[in-house]
Amino acid sequence: MTTRHFIVTMILAAAVIAGLGVIWRLTPPKIVDLVFGAEGVGTNGDELTLRSIQKVGKFYTVSYHGDYEQRLRWFRDEHLKLAGLKKPSNCSLFVVRTPAGEPLLGRNLDRRDIPVLARFAPPGKYASYALSPSYEVHLHDVLVANPTEAQRNNFLFCLPFYPTDGINEKGLTIAIAGAPIRRIKQSEARTPMFVLHFIRSVLDDCQNAEEVARFAETVTLYDRAIDTISHHFLVTDATGQWLVIDYPEGELRITRGEDEPQARTNHFLEGGPSLVDTQTSFSRYAQLESALNSANPPASTAEAMALLRRVRDGTAWSVVYDAGARKGLLAVRENYQTQYRFGFSQ
Asked: What's the longest Cα–Cα distance across the chain?
C-alpha cells in the first residue's frame, strides 16, 4: 500500500467511525487542588509570608499575611518617580456565560516567565487570589540560600503591587492585556495609578463590575511612562456583568455587557495595528470570536481551558476564573495535562 493509499484509508476509516457515533477524546487532565498558607504561633506576617512559599510543578504559591496598604502607598509614590514597564506581553482574554449561567473569564499570559499564584487576605479588604510574573515580584531574591533583608523586602513590597489577573471572594475577576500605546489625556481630577496597582485595588475593594467602573472614573491609568498606556482590561463579576476598560483615543472608555461573549487580544477592535504582534493578535482574536459565537461555545471551565490551549502563544500560564463559583483553574507553561484548582469555599 502506498503512502497516499494509506492516508486515504485512514480518512475513510475516520469517517466510518464518526458515522457510527464514536467520539475520540483526549485523556482528561489531572486536577490538583492547591493548599495555601503557613501556620506558626508568635511569628509575624512577613515571616509567615516567606515561609508559605511553595514550589508546585513549574510555579510557586504564596499566602501573603498581614496588611500591605502602607507598603502599597510607599511603592506607589516611588513608582511615580520611576514610572516604566517593559514591553507588554501578548495576551488572550475572553468572557463567556455557560448554558448553566456561570460567568467565566479566561486568560493566557503569553511570555516566558514563572507564575506566582498568591492568596491575599488583608484586614478590611476582600480576600483574593492573584497571579504575577516571578520576574516582576523579585521571587528569585528570596529563593537564594541566605536572602538579605533588602532581598526579602523586595519580594514583600512587590508581590501585592504587580498582579496581572485575579479573583476575589465576591467573584469579581479582572485581567490585563497589552494594547497599542496611547498618550493619556491628563486630568487634575483623577489620580495617576499604575495599571497593575489598579488590579490590586480592584480585587481589594470592589465586589462587582459597576464598582470597578466607578473606581476607574477616579484614576488615570499609566504603564510605560506616567503619560502613556499600552494595556486594556477585561472584568466580570458573579452576576455575569462584564466591562472592557481601555484608552483607544487617550481617554478612558468603559464598554459594558452581560449575556454576549467578549474577547480581547492585543489590538483595538476599531482597527489598526497591534502593539505586540499584529499577526498573532488578529489570528488569536479570530479564533476566540469564532469559538465564542459558535453553536457550541465553552460550556465549562474545562472547555474554556481547551479554548485557551488553542490560542496559546509562548504562554506562561492559562487560567479560567469561574466568577459564580469563585474558583480558578490554572495550567502552567503550556502543560494542560496537569491543571491546578484553587478558590473560595461556598
From this structure: 77
CA 75 to CA 318: how far, in whole Å? Answer: 28
- Parallel, antiparallel or unpaired: strands 115-120 and 59-64: parallel
**% of the chain with per-residue pLDDT over 90:** 76
pTM of the predicted protein model: 0.90
CB 314 within 8 A of CB 111: yes
Q: At what angle do helices 278-292 and 301-310 cross, to 10 degrees?
A: 150
Beta bridge partners of 275: none
Sole residue written with cell 506607589: 76
- The pLDDT tens digits for 97-141 are 999 999 999 999 998 899 999 999 999 999 999 999 998 999 999
Residue 166 CB neighbours (<10 A): 25
Q: Are 339 and 327 in contact (CB under 8 A)?
A: no
Beta strands 335-343 and 128-133 are unpaired
